[in-house]
Design a protein that fits this description.
The protein is 78% helix and 0% strand. The protein is an all-alpha fold.
Length: 288
């Protein structure tokens, strides 16, 4: 039973789904001076979790041929045969996505539901089906999925969206490429074997690392923009601390390239975003 639950959590990419739900909660708390209704936020966050799960499972279903060629993914359930890739999967996942949209409308409004749908569509169709096998821009566009999680939460509170929520969505958009490219740099042989044109596969290592650094600079600069809209000390401190560490590790990646530095940068990206989202969610309660 435990093994089955672990496989389901893996197929539905629940860790990513939980992250997206937290991003939605953060989005709901970005609008200055407004504390949203807890039930409303919980409903939209759960809708985001369901839609992300549907998109994540579809990613596993669609990419089972690629996963077979990669050491990191060849033990996934659709590859091993633990789960059979029949028609029931895409039909069931479509139903799950529809349920998430209905939940978002019921808990909040149509605009929040639209962002819930767009997040899943970007990841499940635009990134997985259209772009991943065709272009190194795949993860750049695919990064919009996390941005729509933020906007879903923000739209639940204020459908017209606040400047702060748009900035946080921009932060998520700029965060995804250096985060994922760092991991892809460490695993570039795997991606090359599968024929996936991730940036580290199609560009030399020095060039890739410089692109990662440039993207990190843009990310850190954008994460400081809420200071122009009255962000408090907790957020600004988290942005400076986490952003400074991520920037330092990105510089180190350029200066001392290699798998160890790439993974160090990958983990620095997780620390940076964790600090930011935590600060966004805590600060409104400190301000009263």
């Amino acid at each position: 039973m435990a093994a089955q639950l672990k496989m389901l959590a893996s197929v539905f990419k629940l860790r990513i789904g939980v992250f997206c739900a937290l991003a939605a909660i953060a989005g709901a708390l970005t609008t200055k001076g407004i504390l949203p209704e807890p039930g409303q936020v919980a409903g939209v966050a759960f809708a985001v979790l369901l839609s992300a799960a549907a998109a994540g499972a579809f990613n596993h279903y669609w990419e089972r041929d690629l996963d077979h060629r990669m050491v990191r993914t060849r033990t996934r359930p659709f590859v091993t045969g633990a789960f059979q890739a029949g028609l029931a999967w895409p039909v069931g996942l479509f139903v799950l996505l529809v349920a998430s949209i209905v939940l978002a409308v019921w808990a909040a409004n149509a605009m929040a539901a639209l962002h819930v749908f767009l997040g899943a569509f970007i990841y499940g169709i635009v990134y997985t089906v259209w772009l991943k096998r065709r272009t190194a821009w795949n993860i750049v566009i695919g990064g919009l999925s996390g941005s729509f999680a933020v906007l879903a939460g923000a739209a639940a509170v204020q459908p017209s969206l606040s400047p702060e929520s748009l900035i946080l969505a921009l932060v998520l958009f700029l965060w995804t490429p250096p985060h994922f490219w760092s991991l892809a740099t460490a695993l570039k042989d795997d991606y090359a074997a599968a024929g996936v044109p991730m940036l580290p596969v199609v560009m030399d290592e020095a060039g890739t690392n410089k692109v990662i650094l440039a993207n990190t600079i843009a990310l850190v600069a954008s994460s400081l923009l809420p200071g122009l809209f009255g962000a408090g000390w907790l957020y600004m401190g988290a942005a400076a601390l986490g952003g400074g560490w991520f920037l330092y590790k990105s510089v180190e990646l350029v200066r001392h390239p290699g798998r160890k530095a790439a993974m160090g940068n990958f983990f620095a990206s997780l620390i940076q975003l964790t600090l930011l989202l935590t600060a966004v969610m805590v600060e409104p309660f400190l301000a009263g």
